[in-house]
Amino acid sequence: MASGVLELKRLEALVRAWRLLAPLDRREEVFRQVVQAAKAQTRAVSVLLFLYRPEEDALELVAAEGLSRERVGFRLPRGKGVSWVVLESGEPLFVPDVSQDPRVVFLTGQPQPGVYLGVPLRDPRGKVLGVLSMDTAGGVGEILPEERFWLQALAEAAGMVLGRIEALEKAREEAERTRALLELSLSLESAREPLGMAHRLDRYTA
């Protein structure tokens, strides 16, 4: 019975998160809405959203609410901070007191006691894109069981929405390439002189 109730709560949270994020069509809007919703509906002091940047092999803070809000753009190199533990394991991580965990990196620069919960952000194929976390360091708060469901639901819904946005962007790019090739083909067919043909070809291949 207890497991059935927990599963119902998880599904309810996922439906709420999906309804909140599904209408969005820009990545930045998704990032901002996720951290705002997590902060507004939990007792967390800070909410952070990190995305993995493979070209730098680093985690970039793309959105935040709370004490670390001004640190957006901050990067964690590989192996620095508990967010890397979440990213590499692909599993949620709960730390009862961050001041006692040497893996923790404090963005405020001052170690303080508090609870941490981090969950992986996955795309629809299951690839881990980043980490969504909340903590109570530097303030008064707590992380309740139902709030864990909400954080995980936001991460799951965000991953699905970001995957949809990426697919739409790729479709638009492909459509643009097809249109450009069609225009080039029509232009070449209509070119009557070699010089005019070369001029049109240069314009499309520059």
Secondary structure layout:
Elements: H1 2-21, H2 27-40, E1 46-53, E2 58-65, E3 75-77, H3 82-89, E4 93-95, E5 116-122, E6 128-135, H4 145-190, H5 194-205
Antiparallel strand pairs: 1-2, 1-6, 2-3, 4-5, 5-6
Helix pairs in contact: 1-4, 2-4, 4-5
Give the gist of this structure.
49% of the residues lie in helices and 18% in strands. It is of the alpha+beta class and 206 residues long.
Verbal overview:
With 206 residues, the protein is α+β, with helices and mostly antiparallel strands. It has two domains: 2-165, Beta-Lactamase (2-Layer Sandwich); 169-205. It has helices at residues 2-21, 27-40, 82-89, 145-190, 194-205; strands spanning 46-53, 58-65, 75-77, 93-95, 116-122, 128-135. The longest helix is centred in the last third of the chain and has 46 residues, at 145-190. The model has no long low-confidence stretch (mean pLDDT 87).
CATH superfamily of the largest domain: GAF domain
Rg on CA atoms, Å: 23 Å
CATH topology of the largest domain: Beta-Lactamase
Count of helical stretches = 5
Structural class: alpha+beta
Strand content: 15-25%
Proportion in helices: 40-55%
Number of domains: 2
Return the CATH architecture of the largest domain: 2-Layer Sandwich
Q: What is the typical, i.e. mean, pLDDT?
A: 87
| CATH class descriptor of the largest domain | Alpha Beta
* Helix and strand sequence: HHEEEHEEEHH
Calculate the terminal CA-CA distance, rounded to whole Å: 66 Å
Shape: elongated
E-strand count: 6
Instruction: Please give the largest β-sheet.
Output: 6 strands, antiparallel
Lateral strand order in the biggest sheet: 3-2-1-6-5-4
Enumerate the spans where pLDDT stays under 50 for 5 or more consecutive residues.
none
